[in-house]
Amino acid sequence: MTMEMPDLLESPETQLSERFDRSWLVIVHNDPVNLMSYVSMVFRRVFGWNRERAEKHMMEVHHKGRSIVWSGEREKAELYVQQLHGFLLLATLEQATG
């Protein structure tokens, strides 16, 4: 009697590990409440950006309805989303595709 070895590439643990290896995106969405200057100030404070970069992302939020402001590991992305929420910005976390 021979014993079959499980396919380790298809195990739930491997699938879970692959899910967490992907980057996560922090996305800020447009809202009708916050002033553009305020959004720019929040970006500068949270991410340490210069005025030009903060305003570029603020304008993207204003014109396109959203801007990807950061990507990387999940824990840090969650922290950024919490910080943005603390400034009353509408921010979400999405897993990067691909």
What is the number of E strands?
Answer: 3
Q: In CATH, what is the class?
A: Alpha Beta
- Helices, by number, come to 4
Given the helix and strand composition, which structural class is it? alpha+beta
**Percent helix:** 40-55%
* SSE pattern: HEHHEHE
CATH architecture descriptor name: 2-Layer Sandwich
Description of the molecule:
This protein has 98 residues and is an alpha+beta fold. The chain is built from four helices and three strands; from the N terminus they run αβααβαβ. A three-stranded antiparallel beta sheet has the order 2-1-3. α2 packs across α3 (51-64). It is globular, with a radius of gyration of 19 Å. Mean pLDDT is 87; it is low at 13-18.
Question: What does this entry show, briefly?
Answer:
By secondary structure, the chain is an alpha+beta fold. The chain has four helices and three strands.
For the structure shown, list the relevant keywords:
98 residues, alpha+beta, Ribosomal Protein L30, Chain: A, 19% strand, globular
Strand and helix layout:
Elements (H helix, E strand, L loop, with lengths): L11 H10 L2 E6 L6 H12 L3 H14 L1 E7 L1 H13 L3 E6 L3
Antiparallel strand pairs: 1-2, 1-3
